[in-house]
Amino acid sequence: MVIHMNKKVTINVPKVSGIKRIRAFADRDKNFNKMSEAIIRRAENTEVGEDDIASLGIGDGLPRHYVNTADGLFYIGGQKPVQVCTTPVVPVALFCGKDKESGLGISLMTGNGLGKYVKAQVSFEDIVQGGAQVMGRLAGRGFCVGPSPQQLALFDRFIQSCRSLPLPVYLMADAMGFVSEDMAFLHGHEPVVTSLTGFDYLLPGFRVRPGLHKGGALEEWINLIRENAHGWAQTFALSASFASMLLVPAGMDVGMFHFHGVSTTGKTLLLMLAASVHGDGSEPGSGGNVNIIRWNTTPNAMERLLADYSGLVACVDELGASNHKQLSSLLYNITSGTAKERLNRGLTADEPFKWRMFILSTGEMSISEKLAEQKAVLQGGQEHRAISMELLPEDAQKPDEPVSETRARADALKTGLAEAYGHAGPAFIGKLLSGKNTAGGLRTYAEFSSWLQEQTDDCCNALEEALRDEGRDITRVQRRGLKRFALVWLAGEKALKYGLLPFESDAVAESVMSAARRWLDDNQNQYNPVRNMLEELQLTLVTKSSRHFITLRDEHARCPGDMWGFVHYKTGDFLIYESVFEKLCSEKGLKTVDVARPLERSGYLLGESAGHYKKRALKTMAQSYYQVKKAFLKCNVMTEF
Fold first, then answer.
1. How does the average pLDDT of the chain come out, rounded?
2. Is the model's pTM score more than 0.85?
3. In a domain, 620, yes or no
4. Which of 40, 193, 231, 623 has the fewest CB atoms within 10 Å, measured from its CB?
5. Sign (positive/negative) of CA torsion 408, 409, 414, 416?
6. Are 263 and 320 within one domain?
7. Does a structural domain hold residue 212?
């Protein structure tokens, strides 16, 4: 046989599917643990005398001069062996942050004497700063390190020497969700990974909420949804829960979908459905594993809880129970994704909590109605971040279905979501990460992010076009809100395709359209700078007119320092200086005509003539003015403008 060296030979290596990669990666930690357990088992069966420890002790997986026997970990680098720990100890892995410079530490394993092989994570920084506390935590796990200074020093040397061993390297993520801009996702304790460059495994470097685990089976959950879920709101809540995991690669910031309506509209059930995608779907108040937050909590606690659910979805119940005095400020902080900076005891700034996901909220009042209780309004940046949608009692009811059957389905969901849950979220991410690029290979993170953003833009364009066809004008701010609906639509369609949402093919599209209509049709929940300016003007005229106005032709009146104009001595109308009116409008980014025109149309402004809203200065006035009628004080700005 002649081999032509200049001829390129192609070897077709079969490609490993994404799902197989995910399973293989998930098994790595188990495999590393099994290897460590095998070493400890050998050591536990190695009973030798003191003179034979150096020659017969088990040095597998250990740094130089250390061995394990049935009597524990020994140092053999001196004249005679020194027992360091009364149980065998094996290093399992090194761990660190994604920069490989922060959070350095080591994972150790031992047998705790009760038939269990246990692990403990030791931070190198903690050893230096608080060795006694570290030893106390290790003792609580079954690592019985000797108390003498020599034993403690030799154990410290053991840990430091382990850094040079060829150990697996674990990435300790600082939050759930996508990590390290790679095709790696942390869902609670579960890594879903097709590619994680430079690391052998992925673990949470934080406390995972106890309710973020699995119960029952995925098939049970799907059947439960198929038999009992119905209506646009329930479909939307489920789709939004899937979409919430995609905010980072989609390039979106935090967004809130708030469902409001009277009692018995199934608001809390929406949160239970969304929570069950990722973990325990039990009702609020039913136990310690509940994944639903209450609005009636402190701002500090709210920030910590939101950070706990970052990367998945946050569910917050009962807005009406909130007693926050500055709700507008709290909403701003919540939707910003970053907590306020705070100083610790050392007067240095703590790292603030951060979060990135959708927040699903419920309450009997809309966000605007709740803000109105505090004489506040929805601000411009919040219209597309804090989205309110009204729920009606019939939204979850099937055609011609008796109310009793609707309630029975709701009860079945409440019972079932506490038994089968937590499978759909990881399964959804696994399917997405297994998607192929145009060349037929698994996508890189950059390819996935680009694909996701393009698909979301396409959905947003289609959604906007459909809404415009219904006669709606979509503002630039509203389009930003529609982009969040578009991501929900895309994620819901993918969940349908993967068999995770057992609905009709058009169910997700219809649910997103219904949700968008409810949002756009609720005038109170749209940011309106003209309305906001008029509300503030009305409040000032009612409560502080004496600070800014004097009565026209009152020769003895004392001019205030911040004078806005005059009150007409006959009609009680407010004659507001042109410069003041312009300043009030410009503070809201408005022109005077933007405000004067609707005021005149509503009969609350008297202009000079048709189309001329400003009036010439009177003899006793220094400049032109706008005449706002006294009746404006009693009008309902929210409904009339």
1. 91
2. no
3. yes
4. 623
5. positive
6. yes
7. no
Element (H, E) at 307: helix 299-308
Q: What is the DSSP letter of 78?
A: S
**Alpha carbons 53 and 65: distance in angstroms, whole number:** 11
CATH number at residue 313: 3.40.50
Same-domain check for residues 364 and 378: yes
Same domain, 458 and 568: no
Q: Which of 487, 507, 525 is where one domain is finished?
A: 525
CB 635 within 8 A of CB 539: no
- The amino acid occupying position 516 is A
Q: Are residues 168 and 114 in the same domain?
A: yes
Alpha carbons 489 and 492: distance in angstroms, whole number: 5
The tens digit of pLDDT for each residue in 211-258 reads 999 999 999 999 999 999 999 999 999 999 999 999 999 999 999 999
Neighbouring residues of 292: CB distance < 8 A, sequence distance ≥ 6: 268, 271, 272, 275, 283, 284, 315, 316, 317
Residue with tokens 């959950």: 221
CB 312 within 8 A of CB 425: yes
Among 496, 525, 554, the domain-final residue is: 525
> What pLDDT is recorded for position 8?
37
Asked whether residue 204 is domain-assigned, the answer is: no
Its domain, for residue 496, covers 218-391+441-525
| Rounded Cα gap, residues 58 and 38, in angstroms | 11
Amino acid at 210: P
Q: If we measure between CA atoms, which residue out of 215, 181, 250, 242 comes closest to residue 430?
A: 242
Choose among 162, 228, 631: nearest CA to 416: 228
pLDDT tens digits, one per residue of 165-208? 999 999 999 999 999 889 999 999 999 999 999 999 999 999 99
pLDDT(484) > 90: yes
Distance, CA of 249 to CA of 453 (rounded, Å):
8
541: which residues sit within 8 A by CB, 6+ positions away?
574, 628, 632, 633
Task: Reduce the DSSP state of residue 638 to 3 states and report it.
Answer: helix
Residues 6 or more apart whose Cβ sits within 8 Å of residue 482:
460, 463, 464, 467, 474, 516
Q: Give residue 351's pLDDT band: very low, low, confident or very high (50, 70, 90).
A: confident
CA-based nearest residue to 535, from 607, 628, 633: 633
> 321 and 312 in contact (C-beta within 8 Å)?
no
Q: Are 169 and 249 in the same domain?
A: no
Rg of the chain over CA atoms, in angstroms?
A: 33
Structure tokens at 340: 């306020």
CB atoms within 10 A of CB 440: 7
Instruction: Please answer whether residues 204 and 176 qualify as being in contact, where contact means their C-beta atoms are separated by less than 8 angstroms.
Output: yes
Q: Are residues 250 and 355 in the same domain?
A: yes
- Residue 350 sits in the same domain as residue 270: yes
Q: How many domains does the chain have?
A: 3
Asked whether residue 422 is assigned to any structural domain, the reply reads no
Name residue, tokens 């659910």. 309
| Residue 90 C-alpha from the chain's centroid | 37
Same domain, 347 and 321: yes
